[in-house]
Task: inverse folding
C-alpha cells in the first residue's frame, strides 16, 4: 500500500490572500495525505514564501514546488507528476474542504486499498459558496448526486441515472486513482483557462469502479471579479473556451464508447459546453 493515501495538488498564483485557509483545511488529513503546493510563477506577493513556510513546518506532509507560470492546467500537471499517493485530488487555492467530510472520504479510500484496491473514482458533493466583495456570504448551494448515483457502495457506469441539468461531475466533485491519470498520461494544456472540463472528461472512459459519498466536501468560493467563471471574464476568454471544447471533441470517438449511459453522459456534457460557448459568442 502507498504510504500516502491521498495526494492533493493546490495550484497557486498570487494566492497570498486566501491560500492559508485552503491549506489549513487540508492539513486535517495528517500523515495520510501529501499536499503539493504548486507556485505557478507568482511574482506579485508572498505566495512562494508561504508555500515554503508550510513545507518547512510540515516536511512529511507538504511539498512546495515552484515553476515558471504555465497556468492552472500546467500546475495540475506538476501536481500529478509529483504525486505519490494512491489517489489524487485538485483543490484550488481560494477554496477549502469540510473537515468531517474529509475524514469520511479518507476512510472510504483506506477501505478500498485494504480490501481489493479497485476504486477508480470517488465522488462527493460540492458547495457553491458565494461571497460579496466584502467577503460576506451571499448564498451557499450544495450540488449533490442523490438522484443520479447509487449511494454508499461501489458501482459502474451501467448503474447511473440521468444527471440533472447543472449537476454534472465537475473537478470539485471527483477524486481519481492516481495510477489511472498517470496511466492515460493525462496532460492539460498550458496557459489555458477552463481545463478542468478536460479533467472531468478525458479520464471517464477509463473509470470502471466508482463510489459516491453523499457529503458536502468541497467548498467552492465564488464572487471575485477576476475569477475565470465570472461572465465578463468568460466572454473575454471565449477563445480559450473554444480551445477546450475542441480538445474535448477530439479526445475520442464517442460512437466507440460501448457503455450507453457513459456515452450519453459524455454527449450531454459536450453539448452543454458548446451551448455555453455559443451563448457567450452571441453576447460579444
Result:
Amino acid at each position: 500500500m502507498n504510504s500516502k493515501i491521498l495526494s492533493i495538488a493546490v495550484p497557486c498564483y498570487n494566492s497570498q490572500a486566501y491560500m492559508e485557509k485552503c491549506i489549513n483545511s487540508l492539513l486535517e488529513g495528517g500523515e495520510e495525505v501529501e499536499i503539493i503546493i504548486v507556485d505557478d510563477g507568482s511574482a506579485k506577493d508572498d505566495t512562494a514564501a508561504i508555500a515554503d513556510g508550510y513545507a518547512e513546518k510540515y516536511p512529511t506532509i507538504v511539498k512546495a514546488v515552484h515553476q515558471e507560470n504555465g497556468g492552472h492546467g500546467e500546475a495540475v500537471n506538476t501536481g500529478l507528476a509529483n504525486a505519490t499517493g494512491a489517489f489524487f485530488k485538485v483543490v484550488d487555492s481560494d477554496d477549502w474542504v469540510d473537515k468531517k467530510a474529509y475524514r469520511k472520504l479518507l476512510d472510504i479510500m483506506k477501505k478500498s486499498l485494504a480490501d481489493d484496491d479497485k476504486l477508480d473514482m470517488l465522488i462527493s458533493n460540492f458547495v457553491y459558496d458565494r461571497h460579496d466583495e466584502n467577503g460576506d456570504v451571499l448564498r451557499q448551494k450544495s450540488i449533490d448526486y442523490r438522484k443520479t448515483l447509487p449511494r454508499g457502495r461501489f458501482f459502474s457506469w451501467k448503474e447511473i441515472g440521468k444527471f440533472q441539468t447543472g449537476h454534472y461531475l465537475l473537478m470539485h466533485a471527483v477524486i481519481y486513482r492516481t495510477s489511472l491519470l498517470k496511466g492515460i498520461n493525462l496532460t492539460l494544456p498550458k496557459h489555458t483557462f477552463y481545463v478542468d472540463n478536460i479533467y472531468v472528461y478525458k479520464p471517464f472512459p477509463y473509470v470502471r469502479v466508482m463510489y459516491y459519498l453523499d457529503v458536502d466536501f468541497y467548498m467552492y468560493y465564488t464572487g471575485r471579479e477576476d475569477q475565470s467563471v465570472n461572465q465578463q471574464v468568460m466572454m473575454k476568454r471565449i477563445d480559450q473556451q473554444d480551445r477546450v471544447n475542441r480538445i474535448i471533441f477530439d479526445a475520442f470517438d464517442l460512437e466507440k464508447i460501448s457503455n450507453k449511459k457513459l456515452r450519453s453522459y459524455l454527449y450531454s456534457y459536450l453539448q452543454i459546453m458548446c451551448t455555453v460557448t455559443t451563448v457567450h459568442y452571441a453576447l460579444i
About this structure: The beta strands are 6-12, 33-40, 62-67, 87-90, 96-97, 121-131, 137-143, 154-155, 174-177, 210-222. The mean pLDDT is 91.
